[in-house]
Prior knowledge:
Blueprint: E1 3-7, E2 16-20, H1 26-35, E3 41-42, E4 46-53, E5 56-67, E6 71-76, E7 85-90, E8 96-107, E9 112-119
Antiparallel strand pairs: 1-2, 3-5, 4-5, 4-7, 5-6, 6-9, 7-8, 8-9
Amino acid sequence: MPIRLTSADDSGGNPWEMIVAFTKDAGYEQRMKKIRAGIRLNSRVAVAVEWTEGARTLRSEGYTVDISPKGCLAIFPQGFTVGQRLHLINLTNQSACEAILVWRGHEGRSGWELGLELQKMPAEFWNVDF
């Protein structure tokens, strides 16, 4: 429903009137569907990430907040760069796959919020039927 905005000029000039129509932002809804596509399950799973710096392989352990067939939101004590490729390991069943860091949130008391997109995830990676 449109709304009408009016104003009177205190200097005795002409008042103005503007009618503004509100529309639903379909573009926003489509972007959110793409970002949040698929099923997500709140689940705390012990995980680790490994990456290489120079000739050394480094490792950090954390846990998930939620999981999905496409990735997870996890908390790690170390922050990483968005776009960084990591090797993600489910410490419960030792299943592993490559992951790309697609989102980095805030650093809290427990560590950094990290959004990981899993690449070619094995069907048994989470041990959950989505």
